[in-house]
Amino acid sequence: MENIYGFAEQLSIKKRIDNKIVISGLNNGNWVLSQIESIVLQEFNGGRDLEEILAILPGREVSIIKIYENFIDKGILVKNSARKIDLSAKWTLDEVFFELTKQCNLRCHHCYIPKEIEKKELGLEKWFQIVDSCKDLGVGLIKLTGGEAMLHPHFWDIVKYINKNGISMRLYTNGSCLNKKTVENLKTVGISEIQISLDGGTEETHDTFRNAPGNYKHILRTLPILIRFEIRVILSFTVTDYNVNEINLFIREARQFPNVKIVISPYINYHQTYQGDRFVDVSEETVEKLKECFENNKNIWSDKIKYSLSFSNRFIGYCGFGIYSLYIDSFGKIILCPLLGNIQLGTITDGIENIWENSKILMEYRSHTIADEGITVVGGPHPSFNEREMLDDIGADFVIKGEGEFTFLKLLESLKYPVQYPISRVKGISYRIKNDIYISEKIEYIENLDALPLQAIGIIDPEKYSTAFTLITSRGCPGNCVYCASRALSGNKYRMRSAENIICEIYFLSEKLNSRKFLILDDTFTANKERLEYFCLLLSKYNEKYAFRIESRVDAVREKDIDALKKVGCEVIHFGVESGSQEIIKKIGKNINLSWAKEIMCYANKQNIHVVTLLIPVVFAIINRSLMTSVSFATCFIAMASGYTFSISEKNGMERLYGILPITKKEFVLGRYLYTIIMGGIAVLFSCIVHPIVLFILGDKVTWQQIIFTFLYGILLYSIYTVFQLPGYYKYGSINGRMFMYIPIIGFLLVLFGMEKVNLSKNGFAISIFSNLGILAAVITFGIILIYTVSICISIRIMKNKEI
Q: Which CDD domains match (predicted)?
């Protein structure tokens, strides 16, 4: 048994009712395992070793080994342990609130605790017994609350006993009892997180709201002490009409302290106070302001709700009461929620475990979850090719592969009538059966796209969404690019809706949404010339002025098509060109002519249609050492004030590309990384060129030392930024869009020093320079770079003055 790993004895490992496994006894409360982590742990529990698990779960070797090593690092798996765990799915009790006392030294307007407290509260021995019960049940987190919990005469004895039993704690407090000594003691007894109530952005508002003069300043003085002792802090703001206008002030104050998160929630009135009190009323306007606040400040919002959100959407329980949490008040009553004090589940003498498993109230409450009815179904391009990821990592129940309209209807029918129409008969889906993934037969693709119903736009509120609507008028693409997933998704067949059907949907949606703007998201909308001409003819017959954009290939567009599209309102065309190298284009199966691409895009630009050029230089150009051909091609259209987009191809496309071009994943990542370094180097060098000019304007003497310092300073800034991008390159195969801010620099240089270096015809050159605000684009680019350089110069001067 020397090298055999088993589970650590001190840990509580349980399987929740949603089949996710929870581990308690680690640092910071409960750890919820992902789907694949849960599967690996169950296999270890079943007696299999690592090699056996790798054999029964092929294709996941890297992630399984990483999970295995993580289990050992966290102390979940230890040597020479033969421990086995009961992993039958249960309603697990993971968190318990201890209301240590109802006594409090403040008199807050919104408090639900009665002012008169007559009943004797629980003593020390009773709380010790409750802690023992919690440990036996595998509770991972105890939340200490009140009243003011720290006023309990045996507070320190209780928290020491909880810590001794290896259960994590979070303290809820009004902050009045916190000082350097108590904070140090809290750290010693194992409390690593504290939630403090701060109900205003100013001293006057908070202290008035809580009837506590001086409390606001005391909390702000205490925060640095908590941070010094590395105790995580959550500042809690209870929102009413009285203090809602100070939310932003509160957030601004919180952001001044590291390691501080916030939680903001509306006051909930359960008739403990009367409506009409200005301190506790909550209007619809206040709720809307709260929503807006959340959207704008997610980065500082507390992540304590992550545990709640870890439950699949089949289970209710935002706060967790009755689902994974209980509340024990200071008299020993076990209740569903402190705000619903009249719903008592029992008392501690009935036994916590007995109540959790057998309470009729809890059984009824849980029966109203959608645990047996809610199903998560995903579909679309990414899930169609990554069904294992969808089922393992995000907990989807079903993945619809390929076209989903009819498959989804069949799936609904099977779920509703499982006996008459079993799930095994549904084609085009993937789902899990225990540890295996079942993939059904492929679906037959929809031949008549006109048979599909129009979008059910009536079920959404158009006021909440953009008025521009989208259409998809075909499936697949007539092209055969090796990196694209479109043909695989559509069954390698290009199918179209009729022009009449498209016009019908445009008219229907424009009337429903009162909008005349739309986007056609086909890969190649102009592929069929007869349909395109008829579409333009029908659209021109309406007395409405439409504005829309399309996507297409340069070899599927003629000058007459541009003219027809312009007449009916086309404002933007996205062209997929992918590379400035004809050799690369041939290898990737694009089969377009770059000369024609330049010609047709220049023509579209001349007709005042905005052109967006889609390129993938980091994949193709670097590989064949032809980066500058793509850059030169791009700068042609930058100079014409047209758009450009660089994108990365689909995962399965890259795998196909590796079979055509001699490149490994490491070389692929390295090539793209080198590309960003080149762009950064150009930006820094350009700054050095402009630097002497800026120094001259500022009245400084230009020296080589200053220029060299600017160069080194720029390299340092860019290197820091670039290094932080590297993990994203390797993990996601993507590049931050801001990297390409340097492309316009090359465009400006080419405009400045001679566009003849770009392979354009004379007419194309004339159009590039003089039409469509090309010069203005160059001037704006120069201005942006100038501001960037000036900021560097000024920062150098500041550092020099401060002798940094």
A: Radical_SAM, SPASM
Q: Which residues lie below 8 Å from residue 635, measured CB to CB, with a gap of 6+?
A: 743, 746, 747, 750, 751, 758
- Same domain as 192, residue 324: yes
Q: What is the DSSP letter of 425?
A: G
The SS3 of residue 13 is: strand
Q: pLDDT tens digit string along 101-137?
A: 988 888 787 776 766 566 788 999 999 999 999 999 9
Among 426-430, 669-673, 681-685, the least confident range? 669-673
Cα–Cα distance for residue pair 40/44, rounded to 1 Å: 6
Residues 622 and 655 in one domain: yes
Establish if 86 belongs to a structural domain.
no
The whole-chain average pLDDT of the chain stands at: 76
**Number of independent structural domains in the chain:** 5
**Residue closest to 512 by CA, chosen among 472, 550, 545, 465:** 465
Pair (548, 525) in one structural domain: yes
Q: pTM here?
A: 0.53
Q: 712 vs 346, which has greater pLDDT?
A: 346
Q: Specify whether 334 is located in the same domain as 191.
A: yes
Structure tokens at 314: 């089949």
The one-letter amino acid at 182: T
d(CA 724, CA 735): 11
pLDDT value of residue 391: 80
Q: What confidence category does residue 280 fall into, taking pLDDT thresholds of 50, 70 and 90? A: confident
By residue range, what is the domain housing residue 674?
670-802
Specify the CATH number for the domain of residue 329. 3.20.20.70
Q: Distance of CA 664 to CAs 636, 653, 660, Å?
A: 31, 14, 11
> Using an 8 Å Cβ cutoff, are 557 and 526 in contact?
yes
- From 643, 663, 683, the end of a domain falls on 663
Question: What amino acid occupies position 562?
Answer: I
Bridge-based pairing state of the strands 232-239 and 193-197: parallel
Q: Which residue has the higher pLDDT, 530 or 611?
A: 530
> Tokens 């008299």 belong to which residue?
331
510 and 622 part of one domain: yes
